[in-house]
Design brief:
Strand content: 5-15%
CATH class of the largest domain: Mainly Beta
Pfam family, one: HTH_18
Number of helices: 12
Organism: Apibacter adventoris
Structural class: alpha+beta
Shape: elongated
Distance between the termini: 65 Å
Helix content: 40-55%
Number of strands: 12
Strand order of the largest sheet: 2-11-5-8-12
CATH architecture of the largest domain: Sandwich
Protein name: AraC family transcriptional regulator
Order of helices and strands: EHEEEEEEEEEEHEHHHHHHHHHH
Keywords: DNA-binding, Transcription, Transcription regulation
GO molecular function: DNA-binding transcription factor activity; sequence-specific DNA binding
Length: 299
């Protein structure tokens, strides 16, 4: 089994890279100034954001290689494993990065909504590709954080650092919104594939075997992480994937209820509901009528 290097703290991370620790919970890294790094698997106990400038070598995340091109931002959350298996070569990088420990956010407004920055859970093929202007903004934010790290510590230090991290993350949300928009044609194709996936799911009676389609199932079938898939569908339709799936189920239910040769229980079973009573509550909440009332009123 390959050895995994655990980098649980900022001091451990800095020792690995051969740089000075200015703050126990956060560090800004210029990879052109660090020692040659060994490309081994690493388990991070930190949040990390990498900006690639030039050739930084490959990053392996899980079982796949990161789409890590020039001007790409990579986001990692605590507990994620990166690096190569059976790869002991040393390499030098060009790029910048921000690492911060979750404890830095304790008691801060950012700590209460860090989960809203869903890009920390995106998969490898969902990286953020930024423009030169966006790269400049990102580096400026890093420089502000680094300037504060070099400032004499006082009672305002942590709040200023966290505020600047939140500013950087908010910019990244804007950059992702831009990427969703500029890839609108690709996203429209994904929406079509999502629709076709649901149509085929109900056409081939998969609900009888597997139950109702989940967001996780759809994301996996379309080769996305649930978070990225959710953000993309929300941007395109104004609805979450779960809402989109529920609307599809209701539309199919209305169609099948209209056939008088099927009981409500049979329709519920065909759609993947284990109990017809749950189907009745689900239908009434969405339509305002029970399935029986809908059949009586609209047939």
């Amino acid at each position: 089994m390959d050895e995994i290097l655990n980098l649980e703290t900022i001091p451990q991370c800095n020792v690995y890279m051969g740089i000075e620790t200015l703050h126990p919970l956060v560090t800004v890294v210029d990879f052109s100034e660090v020692k040659p790094l060994q490309n081994v698997k690493k388990n991070l106990g930190l949040y990390a954001i990498f900006l690639k400038i030039g050739d930084c070598g490959d990053i392996k995340y899980g079982r796949q290689y990161y789409d890590y091109q020039e001007g790409t931002l990579v986001f990692l959350a605590p507990g994620q494993v990166v690096g190569k298996e059976n790869e002991r070569k040393f390499y030098r990088s060009e790029g910048k990065a921000l690492f911060f420990h979750p404890d830095l956010l304790n008691g801060t407004p950012l700590g209460k909504h860090i989960q809203d920055y869903t890009f920390f859970s995106y998969q490898i093929y969902e990286a953020l590709h930024i423009s030169e202007e966006e790269k400049g903004i990102f580096i400026e934010c890093l420089n502000k954080i680094e300037l504060e790290l070099k400032h004499t510590t006082d009672k305002h230090s942590n709040s200023i650092i966290v505020s600047n991290i939140e500013l950087l993350l908010n910019y990244c949300m804007r950059f992702y919104d831009r990427q969703f928009k500029t890839r609108e044609r690709v996203n429209t194709d994904i929406l079509i594939r999502f629709e076709n996936l649901l149509n085929e799911y109900f056409l081939y009676e998969k609900p009888k075997k597997f139950g109702l389609p989940s967001v996780k199932y759809c994301a996996e079938q379309l080769h996305f992480s649930p978070n990225y898939f959710g953000d993309l569908i929300k941007k395109e339709t104004g609805k979450s994937p779960q809402e989109y799936i529920q609307l599809k189920i209701i539309n199919i239910a209305k169609e099948r209820i209209s056939y008088m040769n099927k009981t409500i229980s049979e329709v519920a079973y065909e759609l993947g509901f284990q109990h017809s009573s749950y189907f009745t509550r689900f239908f009434k909440k969405s339509v305002g009528y029970t399935p029986k009332e809908y059949r009586s009123n609209f047939n």
